[in-house]
Design brief:
Elements lengths: L11 E2 L5 H9 L6 E2 L10 E11 L11 E13 L3 E7 L1 E2 L6 E2 L2 E2 L1 H15 L23 H4 L18
Helix pairs in contact: 1-2
GO molecular function: zinc ion binding
Protein name: 3CxxC-type domain-containing protein
InterPro entries: ZAR1/RTP1-5-like_Znf-3CxxC
């Protein structure tokens, strides 16, 4: 009998549906960027690892986990050419069943991080926002796909103290 192939899921996603919010915020500073759906780390001109907030729900039907929130969802922001960007948002694994989960984003933290970085890359003076909500739990590298892909600011001794992770 042939062996069943194990289904593999991506370790990250992009969220182009939030580009309109990013674009609206950038327009206030006179910037106009397009979302680049062709993710290619070799052709990007700049990249930056940071994190955002959101919530995860385990997608496995037999898992009893109700879900979890995270203030450390790893992301990689990439700039292409002059006015194109994209963002990889890394998934996390469920602590109970090890299932891979795609986040439901805190859209405001996503928009804030992206616009801040794009403004900085454009040479604009940007005040670093004060971030007052500390994370309560330890960062579990074995559950973080950002860590596994080498793009988490919390892994490999790259722990970035709040609020300076912008």
């Amino acid at each position: 009998m042939p062996q069943k192939k194990k289904k593999t899921y991506p370790s990250w996603s992009m969220f182009p549906e939030h580009h309109a919010s990013v674009s609206d915020e950038l327009a206030k500073s006179g910037l106009d960027f397009q979302f680049n759906e062709d993710d290619d780390e070799d052709s990007c001109s700049q990249d930056y690892d940071t994190n955002i907030m959101g919530r995860f729900r385990c997608r496995r039907g037999n898992c009893k986990t109700q879900g979890w929130s995270s203030k450390r969802i790893a992301i990689t922001i990439r700039r292409y050419q002059l006015t194109s960007y994209n963002v990889r948002v890394y998934h996390q694994r469920c602590k109970s069943c090890n299932g891979l989960s795609r986040p439901d984003l805190d859209v405001q933290s996503y928009v804030d991080r992206i616009t801040y970085r794009l403004k900085k890359w454009n040479g604009m003076e940007v005040e670093t926002p004060v971030y007052s909500r500390e994370s309560k739990g330890p960062h579990e590298e074995d559950l973080c796909e950002g860590c596994k892909n080498g793009h988490c600011t919390q892994s490999d001794g790259r722990v970035t103290a709040f609020p300076d992770y912008w």
